[in-house]
Amino acid sequence: MHICGLLAFLMVCTGPCLAQDDAGNINSDQSSGWEIDEWYIFTSLYTKHFDPDPDHVNNQKALGIETRMKNNWVIGVAAFDNSFGQNSQYLYTGYMWDLFGSELWYFKLTGGLLHGYKEPHEDKIPLNGLGIAPAILPTLGFQYKFFVTEFNLAGIAALTITAGIAF
Predict the structure, then answer these.
(1) How far, in Å, CA of 105 to CA of 148, rounded?
(2) Exposed/middle/buried for 131, CB within 10 Å: 0-12, 13-18, 19+?
(3) Is 58 contained in some domain?
(4) DSSP string, the chain
(5) Tens digit of pLDDT for each residue in 109-161?
(6) CA gap 119, 63 in Å, rounded
(7) Which residues contact 118 (CB under 8 A, 6 or more apart)?
(8) Which residues on neighbouring strands pair with residue 164, listed in sequence order?
(9) Does residue 26 lie within any of the structural domains?
(10) Which domain holds residue 109?
(11) Is 124 left (phi over 0), alpha (psi -120 to 50) or beta?
């Protein structure tokens, strides 16, 4: 999946969340909270598998984009190499909570669909019978101004550190 396709998909999905006035200008004074607060573009920096396997790849080459709503909901998509070097995608939605009374630290829980685990590794993730499996990803994040870094727990298999920019 190309990044242009990912961007187009997110814009189509989040477009209805923006209100427009009669002149076509974006109106940000909605009370629902579903307007976009910021965009976040990220990549993977480091991955550590908890139970190393000679077949594991620790460079996920992830590239993702996420839109964060004013009501703390998120919608995103990421393209990456899975633990076995196969091209994979994760399409998700989730929610973010501030941690420790801080505006810098947060916990994010996302859930969505994971695609890309193919033979001979299709059985390495549960419920992958049709080539698409449900996935849940808990994340600890830190954001200072535009810089964001996250620690993602990939089930019981691995920890991935990502970094990116919010705008």
Answers:
(1) 10
(2) exposed
(3) yes
(4) --HHHHHHHHHHHHGGGSEE-TTS-EE---SSS-SEEEEEEEEEEEEEESS--TT--S----EEEEEEETTSEEEEEEEEE-TTS-EEEEEEEEEEEE-TT-SSEEEEEEEEEEE---TTSGGGSTT-TTSEEEEEEEEEEEEETTEEEEEEEETTTEEEEEEEEE-
(5) 999 999 999 999 999 899 998 899 999 999 999 999 999 999 999 988 899 99
(6) 23
(7) 86, 131
(8) 42, 148
(9) no
(10) 3-13+35-166
(11) alpha
Does 50 reside within a domain? yes
Both tokens of residue 19? Answer: 């209100």
CATH classification of the domain holding 46: 2.40.160.20
Give CA–CA dist 17/32, Å, rounded: 9
Which tens digits make up the pLDDT trace of 71-119?
999 999 999 999 999 999 999 999 999 999 999 999 999 999 999 999 9
Query: What would the two tokens of residue 98 be?
Result: 């501030």
